[in-house]
Amino acid sequence: MKRLSAVVLVLCLCAAAGSAAGQQASGLNIARMEIAGNVENREPVGIASSFPATQERVYCFLEFKDVAAETTVSVVWTLGMNEMSRVPLTIKPFSKFRTWAYKTIGGLKGEWKVDVVDASGNVLKSAAFKIE
Predict the structure, then answer these.
(1) Are 87 and 113 in contact (CB under 8 A)?
(2) Residue among 43, 34, 6 at smallest CA distance from 114
(3) Is the distance from CB of 70 to CB of 88 less than 8 angstroms?
(4) Listed residue (20, 48, 55, 37) closest to 125, CA to CA
(5) What's the start-to-end Cα distance of the chain, in Å?
(6) 121: left (phi over 0), alpha (psi -120 to 50) or beta
(7) What's the whole-number mean pLDDT along residues 81-92?
(8) Residue 7: pLDDT band by 50, 70, 90 thresholds?
(9) Partners of residue 35 on adjacent β-strands
(10) How far, in Å, CA of 15 to CA of 28, rounded?
(11) Which of 1, 2, 106, 118 has its CA 20 to 30 A from that of 72?
């Protein structure tokens, strides 16, 4: 059991380092990523890790810091093992740049994951939520 715990810890640390390496390789710094029920006045509203099946849309809000050059990322929405949507977003060179993408849920229950992927396919950041 002790050995299994050590293996799990190493895997978690590697995953965290991989995400940081992806951000460094792309030159993008995602300062904030929130999953929310809405976006109002360029801020996420109703931040949660689970939503009812009646929720029409779920938003992935992103805040980038110190963007050096215009680039594109994709927000990839996955339900279970199935990619449901891929939304490209243009990121502009500003010290603080906020943007978001949404997915119309259509009552699809289950475990969802959202990945922010750079142009080279590196996962910069991930978040998970549940539709119940």
Answers:
(1) no
(2) 34
(3) no
(4) 20
(5) 33
(6) left
(7) 97
(8) very low
(9) 60
(10) 18
(11) 106
3-state per-residue secondary structure call for 9-29: HHHHHHHHHHHHHHHHHHCCE
Burial 48-59 (b: 16+ CB within 10 A, else e): eeebeeebeebb
pTM of the model: 0.81
Query: Measured over all CA atoms, what is the biggest interatomic distance in the chain, rounded to whole angstroms?
Result: 49
CA distance to 9, 32, 69, 105, per residue, from 63 (Å) = 29, 5, 15, 23
State yes or no: pLDDT of 78 exceeds 50: yes
Please give the Cα distance from 29 to 69 (Å, whole number).
12
123-131/50-51 β-pairing: parallel
